[in-house]
Amino acid sequence: MKLSRIAAIALRILRQFRHDPRTVALIMIVPLVVMALIGYLIGDAGKGPLPVAVVNLDAGTDMPSGHISLGATITAALGRNGQVAVEPSTSVQAATERVRSGEVAGAVILPADLTQDVLGGAPVSVDVVVMGTNPGLQGPVIGATQEAIANLAKTAGAAAAGFKAPPLSIRPAPLEGGVGLSPLDYDAPILLTFFAFFLTFLLTSVSFLRERSSGTLERLMASPASRLEVLLGYLLGFIGFAMAQALLILGYATWVLDVRIAGSIWLVLLVIAILLVGVVNLGIALSFYARNELQVVQFIPLVLIPQVFLGGLIWPVQTLWTPLRWLSQLFPLTHSTVALRAVMVGGEGFGDIAGRLLALLAFSVAMVAIGVLALRKYHA
Q1: Strand 50-56 relative to strand 106-110, pairing
Q2: Cα torsion through 25, 284, 331, 278, rounded to 10
């Protein structure tokens, strides 16, 4: 064994990197982008409390020690909780609509005569309205309300009222889905959309790169077929494998793991199909900027990880810093996750997720346009 030969091989590898600035840039930039994003979010700099609508209908009551309102006490306790941000609402209907539209994570309804009923010993329930499709949203809202009620007896107003344990209970009111489903029921839409995106992007980008390397694409470009025809041909070919893969995952989750699908299975497949059309064209477009499989692999964290962290797969989008929340609306995983959860967990129909489908369709059309431009540049 000679060190000179080992050193010669090592130098050859280093020279290859020196003559490949694109690979060097990816090696340097991708880890920095990913680590900056992870550090920003895990360090709580990019996340905030969940907005919660509070409808306080309790007028309180007069006691010898002064006026007492348990509704106001609970609202103040919620305001001191770091997990939620209280947004007062004037009516139950308005608060419920805000929950349904996603403006707030939940709504706490403090009933009329709350204080009088509690002081009289009557059982009282506090309704907590949630969507019922995302535990990352409903869990903190229900937990913060339970904590506020549990600590009610420690407050000065409650102590003056002369009771230790108020007969109050939490009554979750999910608009869809539920609050007692298994974690797999909630997470299956996330896993389905993640694997569909990741595996399709990897398959498409690597396969299309091989088409370029083998000269097949050049021969097709020299044929009478137009650029759009070439792109659509590749799209149909890749989408067939991608849909088969997605069907396999969905079938296993449904029949083996017994994952909940409350809505139409055809609507689930429609969401996946529109997503995959965009992902296939994204893989084709980015493969033009890769010279080898190594560069394709380095594109994966740059494309996928920001969507994982900002698309609601780990943290609810509502907790993100406002610019990051706007950025998340550009990601297809954001819309596909929300749409699949709405259908699979909440049982919603086509009209309920039409906005998300339009966003996915816009992404797909944009990727097709980028693919055509990339083909035109390659031909030129």
Answers
A1: parallel
A2: 180
Q: Per-residue confidence of the chain (380 residues) as pLDDT tens digits?
A: 677 766 776 777 666 666 666 666 666 776 777 777 777 666 655 567 889 999 999 887 877 767 788 888 899 999 998 889 999 998 999 999 999 988 899 999 999 888 888 877 788 889 999 998 888 888 899 999 999 888 876 664 544 445 545 567 888 999 988 877 888 888 899 989 998 899 888 888 888 888 887 777 778 777 777 777 777 888 888 888 888 888 888 888 888 888 889 989 999 999 999 999 999 888 888 887 777 777 777 788 888 888 888 888 887 888 888 888 888 999 999 999 999 999 999 999 999 899 999 999 999 999 888 877 877 766 55
Contact between residue 241 and residue 267 where contact means Cβ atoms under 8 Å apart: no
Please give the DSSP secondary-structure letter assigned to residue 52.
E
Domain's final residue, options 141, 174, 207: 174
Q: Are 89 and 231 in a shared domain?
A: no
Domain of residue 72: give its range.
50-174
Provide the domain count of the chain: 2
34 lies in a domain? no
pTM attached to this predicted model: 0.80
Q: Is the dihedral of CA 186, 187, 188, 194 positive or negative?
A: positive
Asked whether residue 270 falls in the same domain as residue 216, the answer is yes
Residues 109 and 245 in one domain: no
